[in-house]
UniProtKB/TrEMBL annotation:
Pfam families: p450. Its cofactor is heme. This is Uncharacterized protein. Its main location: membrane. It comes from the Eukaryota. It is a single-pass membrane protein. It comes from Hibiscus sabdariffa (roselle). SUPFAM superfamilies: Cytochrome P450 (SSF48264).
Length: 181
């Protein structure tokens, strides 16, 4: 839009997109995390133990989770990142080249539309050994290089709800693993 005023209908469409896109993607990611935890009981046990420890150390007068407690969920955060690596919604990103770009000996001309297939990046065995396996421990001492972990996009087009989504999934899993078998 480059500084142009938006019509009311365009504003409504953008706001609806923000509301609906974040709701569905977070729900799907939480669903897949639940499936992965079910299929990996040893990982589920570690997640559950971490959640039990958080509850044990909280004051008895406290009702519900705090943001500080969510920040203590180090292992669950790794399980969430691993879920987002394996199962990403949407599976691709569209971008437009603003300048001529050289990639692996090829020129992508300015103005061309580019499709980044995130699954290919997330399943690259040079970046992620045993890429098809659900291994939250792969995140123990790993900070992915730029462009190697794209669950919420990258750069200036990163999803504005990325952190909120992880918080929502952490809250869901916290109560789920503590209250259901």
């Amino acid at each position: 839009m480059d500084g142009e005023n938006l019509e009311d209908e365009q504003i409504v469409n953008i706001l609806l997109g923000f509301l609906l896109a974040g709701h569905e993607t977070t729900a799907h990611a939480a669903l897949w995390l639940t499936i992965y935890l079910h299929d990996h009981p040893e990982i589920l046990q570690r997640v559950k133990e971490e959640q039990e420890e958080i509850v044990k150390t909280r004051p008895q007068s406290q009702k519900g989770l705090t943001l500080n407690e969510i920040r203590q969920m180090k292992y669950l955060s790794k399980a969430i990142d691993e879920t987002l690596r394996l199962y990403r919604i949407p599976p691709m990103l569209f971008r437009k080249a603003n300048t001529d770009v050289k990639v692996n000996g090829y020129i992508i001309p300015k103005g061309w539309k580019v499709l980044v297939w995130c699954r290919a990046v997330h399943m690259n065995s040079e970046i992620y050994p045993n890429p098809k396996e659900f291994l939250p421990s792969r995140w123990d001492n790993q900070k992915p290089k730029a462009g190697c972990f794209l669950p919420s996009g990258a750069g200036s087009r990163t999803c504005p709800g990325a952190d909120l989504s992880k918080i929502e999934m952490s809250i869901f899993i916290h109560y789920f693993v503590l209250n259901y078998r």
